[in-house]
Amino acid sequence: MLGSIRARADRPRTYCVVTYGCQMNEHDSETLSGMLGDMGMEKAKSRETADFVIFNTCCIRENAERRALGNVTWLKELKKDRPELMVGVCGCMMQQPGMAEKILRQYPFVDIAFGTHNLYRFPELMENALRTRRRVVEVLQDDEGHIPEELPVRRESRTHAYITIMYGCNNFCSYCIVPYVRGRERSRDAAAILAEARGLKADGVKEIMLLGQNVNSYGNDIEGGMTFPQLLSALDEIGVERIRFMTSHPKDLSDELIEVMASSRHICHALHLPVQAGSDRVLASMNRRYTRERYLERVRQLRKRIPDIALTTDLIVAYPGETEEEFEETCSLVREVGYDAAFTFIYSPRTGTRAAQMEGRIDEETAARRIQKLIAIQKESTKKRMEAMIGSTHSVLVDGASKRDETKLAGKDEYGITVNFPGDRSLIGEIVRVRILSAGESTLRGEIAERQ
Ligand code: 5AD
Ligand code: SF4
């Protein structure tokens, strides 16, 4: 299939993959790039000059969707000047009911569209589009548990790599569209994951990020398979320098997982543990299946066993019916936990979810005021946490030159915080010990302490 595309004189020569949304999408885009490379295409220098532009979309909130569609429309103009330009749309947005029809009707300049369940069929769809010179739209409602292995991947980084350990989500949080567009939980075979990690280590990768909507329920769908803590232990043995994972659902955060994190050699002491809200009524309505107290108890246990753990979270304000008191409970929880960082969102109704049918929509002004207040609280907390790090020494995996200052290097420490420091470019890709000298709003500055 790929060979036959390569052989076609009329195939596009260069491509550009535009990604929206989460790490899962970023990783899917690396797979798209891998497939495009196998079709004989090169990455274009810019979106404007590419022969094939594909948008890997997100629909978690309305603005993510609006942005993606806005950019697709922008290409319409480009296509007027360059009729040979091919346009693709894929990803979560395509999985929504009615979206395939909408693309067919309102976006006639889109040549190829598919969803999340048939990403692996992209080469075939491309071949069809080229052969028939017609538009190809294929969206499957589910994939019947099919997990494609051995797809080509073109990684964006030589030192970091994503490994998907499970697909889909079974949790049906009331506000969330993910279970509808990504389907049910399907865990990848542990042997395939471990083989991938070994391959990455052999390639010189220093950090792997394990991906899943709820990694803590890894293996629940495989009889006699490994649990997530067991998988983590096995990965730790392989010896990739750093292991991270996301996302953990607080309801499934077991003591066993905390113990594995505490005793492992390579698992970073950083955990993204989305709490969403601080009021028990809101949490129950969101179908999160933990209480404020249970969440706080998990945080206490984490901090007891892993005192230096960096905690980050996701928060939603203006969920339907959220009262001022309930919002204040989110504020007090955020103060109480003292997160290292938080992603704050205004609730966005998503068609087909339970919350979208609920009464008590919060007006925009109130929502804006609430999110501003929450951001300010978190900013204080981030500042405190980062200032407490001054004087300590962190391990920094050097990514490249600092964005702001070319003479400096930048990388992430074991807690996931960006650290800038003076150093030679030969250190790019290495892990360096850096003494922290000062803290900015969201980054740290330091100087090299010693080579590891
Ligand atoms: N509105 C606002 N935020 C949402 N999230 C998920 N769905 C919605 C929605 N409908 C947020 C949650 C989740 C993060 C990935 O996005 O906080 O943890
Ligand atoms: Fe969405 Fe909840 Fe699943 Fe996360 S756990 S993807 S918030 S339904």
Task: Report on the architecture of this protein.
With about 450 residues, the protein is of the alpha/beta class. Helix content is about 35%, strand content about 20%. It is built from 13 helices and 19 strands. The protein has helices spanning about 1-5, 25-40, 60-80, 100-105, 120-130, 180, 190-200, 230-240, 255-265, 280-285, 290-305, 325-335, 365-385; strands at about 15-20, 40-45, 50-55, 85-90, 110-115, 135-140, 160-165, 165, 185, 205-210, 240-245, 270, 310-315, 340-345, 395-400, 410-415, 420, 430-440, 445-450. The protein has a six-stranded parallel sheet with strand order 2-1-3-4-5-6, with helices on both faces. A five-stranded mixed beta barrel has the order 15-16-17-19-18. Strand 10, helix 8 and strand 11 (about 240-245) form a beta-alpha-beta unit. Helix 8 (about 230-240) runs parallel beside helix 9 (about 255-265). The model has no long low-confidence stretch (mean pLDDT about 95). The site of iron/sulfur cluster has 10 residues, from helix 6. 5'-deoxyadenosine binds near residues 274 and 348.
